[in-house]
Amino acid sequence: xxxxxxxxxxxxxxxxxxxxxxxxxxxxxxxxxxxxxxxxxxxxxxxxx
Length: 49
What we know:
Mean pLDDT: 71
Low-confidence stretches: none
Strand content: under 5%
Largest sheet: none
Number of helices: 3
Radius of gyration: 17 Å
Order of helices and strands: HHH
């Protein structure tokens, strides 16, 4: 009984595997997201005001 199980993993999650995001780094990332100029349709998808 050799069943092949296919699991799809979001590649964007992979780079954080085994790494700890410290609150300071997380806060910095949030701030950069807020300051970045996104196209309107992307803002809607990401839910950024």
